[in-house]
Structures are given as C-alpha cells and as structure tokens.
Amino acid sequence: MSDRDRYIPGVPCWVDTSHPDPAAVLPFYTGLFGWEFEDVMPDSPGTYFMARLRGRDVAAVGAVQPGMPPMAVWSTYVAVASADDATERVRKAGGAVFVEPFDVLDAGRMAVLADPEGAAFNVWEAKDNVGAQVVNEHGALNFNGLATRDVEGAEAFYGAVFGWELLEIGAGPMWMLPGYGDHLEESTPGLHEQIKAMGAPDGFIDVVAAVNPFDAGDTDTPAHWNVTFGVDDVEATARLVTELGGEVVAGPLDAPWTRMAVVKDPQGAMFVASQFVAENSNLEA
What we know:
The chain is of the alpha+beta class and 285 residues long.
C-alpha cells in the first residue's frame, strides 16, 4: 500500500512546509527521515526542495511566500478533479479563498483555501505531478487531521466541498469518502479482508483523514490541519528530534492503533510522528 501513482478526488495527496530559511532545515529532515532533497526551482526567485525516499516524492520544503507571516508550517493538499470547481464549492459553502487557482508549471493546478473556521488547506488538480508517491511507511505521509471546535459545521462544509462523511468510531471521529476503499482494493486486492481481519470497524477502509475536536473554550488555538508521518520506532524518533535541534512537544504516548509524538522542527513547524501499534487497537480517543 505504500506506493501511489494516482489519487481520486477528495483524498489528501500531498504535504509541504514553508520555512523562513528552508535550506537550513533540510539536514533535520534528512537526519530524521532519511529524505534526499532536490531544488526543483533553481532558476526561480522562490525555493522548493523536493523530498524523496527511494527516489520517489514524499513531501517538500519551500520558502515562506512574500506577504505571509514568517512562520514555519506544514500544509495539506487534497486531490480534486478541478481546482476551479473546488474553489467555487468552497465559496458557496462559506469558506475563504486565500489564493485563486493558478498553474504550477506543468505539475498541476492549485488554490489556497480555508474552511469557515479558518483552517487553511490547498486543493491539487494533478497534471504531471500526482502528489506523494510513497505513503504509510517510515518517513512518509501517514495521515492528515483537522483540529476543529465545530465538528457539525465542518461536516457540512467538507461534505459539500469533497463529499466527505463523518464516521464515529472509538478512535474518534474520522472523515470518510464513500468508495475510497474500493479504489484501494483495485491496487491492493484483498485489502477489504485485511482491514476486517485487523478488527477495524465498518467504514474504516473509506477513511481519508482524522477529526481532532478541541474545546470551544480554547481561544488560543486556531482551527488547523495537521500532518502525520509514519515512523518505525517513535521512541527513537523522539530522541532523534531533540538531537537534531527540534523539540518534542508531547509524547511519546499511546493512542488508538498507534504510539505517537507531537514534535517541532528547528524552525517551529509542527507535525506528528506515528508508529503503528496493533495492540492499541482497542484504545479510545
């Protein structure tokens, strides 16, 4: 399940991070995940370093865009059939358009958007670049999650924009895209049975992202999308984060199906490192 050559509309497909000094943070991610980098915009005023595992794209590190706050953040991209149509759906559903759809050379077409609560995300209409070519292994994208105070409002918005539905399970609410499991089954025959044998609840195979509700009384934390990378050993990863100049914000701690740590890279971009732990399948969020 780790190699990808396409994503159906409505599935998170890519992540990248913007940094005040992108070149300075590359050694951190090389040391942590084994990423190899290539500057894919050497003749451009912008900076975009493609990160690869086994020669395949997994993520990217770029510069903060002019006019944006000088802070390091990870961004989530969701695959769409048309960036223009998705942008109009966002408008009609009450979201915001930060950057109108534009072409990224021959790679694809994208827009920078936000839900009504202010959680920013991107949409990606693939052309030459489908997105992450490796997922669900050490150092690769494993999951995306929405931190929100308003689950009901988010359900209405993301349902209108991407066709997502809310799946309530012991691990916490999840976003599911009906039919996604059938798409995965095409490339991984027998996956339905594998997921069932693991004890996963009905509908889990269609899950595309997580929902992380937080207290409406927490006025300091904005609604946002977060990024999770898979790791083989979260304890070792947490130690390495510190050695490489990053910070372990929380954990490692047990969670449903996983053991995880929340960390920051040396410039402050936050993400989750997650190790699959089958024995934690019965834990509740």
